[in-house]
Design a protein that fits this description.
0% strand
C-alpha cells in the first residue's frame, strides 16, 4: 500500500514570469549598451578623460545591475524552487539592484543637466526666447537661421 503525497500547484507565470521576461529584455538592452560603449571608444578616442571615465563608470554600474538582477531572479526561481514561503521574502540582490539603478539614473541625469547648463551659458537668451514665444518671430527665426533683426520692431 503506497501513499502519495499531496502536490501543491502554484501558478507563478503571472508574477515571476513577467519578472523573468523583464530580466531577459534588460539583458538584451545590456548587449546594446556593450555595443554602444565599444563604438564610443572606437569613434571618440580623443574625448576628455573625465568623459571616458564617466562612460566606464556607467557601464560598470550597468554590469553590476545586470548581475544583481540575474542573481535575484536565480535565487527565487532556481535556488529556492518549491519553497513557497521564500516567495514573500525580499532577497538582497534585488534590493541592491534597485540601489544601483538609482545611482546610474542620478549619474546620467546629472551629466545631462551639466550639458544643458554648459550649453545654456553660451546662448543669447533674449533672441532665442523671443523667437520661441512670439508667433511672427518664429517664422523669421527659422528663415534667418536663428538671427532676428530687431531694428524694425
Amino acid at each position: 500500500m503506497s501513499t502519495t503525497l499531496p502536490t501543491v500547484s502554484v501558478d507563478l507565470s503571472l508574477s515571476w514570469g513577467s519578472i523573468l521576461a523583464g530580466t531577459f529584455a534588460s539583458l538584451i538592452l545590456y548587449g546594446v549598451s556593450i555595443l554602444q560603449t565599444f563604438i564610443y571608444y572606437v569613434q571618440y578616442p580623443k574625448d576628455r578623460m573625465s568623459l571616458k571615465f564617466l562612460v566606464v563608470a556607467v557601464f560598470l554600474l550597468d554590469t553590476l545591475h545586470q548581475f544583481l538582477a540575474c542573481a535575484g531572479v536565480w535565487s527565487y526561481l532556481v535556488q529556492y524552487y518549491g519553497d513557497f514561503a521564500n516567495l514573500v521574502v525580499m532577497h538582497p540582490p534585488l534590493l541592491l539592484a534597485t540601489v544601483v539603478t538609482s545611482l546610474v539614473s542620478f549619474t546620467v541625469q546629472s551629466f545631462f543637466v551639466w550639458r544643458i547648463w554648459s550649453w545654456a551659458i553660451r546662448v543669447d537668451y533674449p533672441t532665442h526666447f523671443d523667437a520661441l514665444c512670439h508667433r511672427p518671430a518664429r517664422f523669421e527665426y527659422l528663415l534667418h537661421g536663428g538671427r532676428i533683426d530687431h531694428t524694425n520692431c
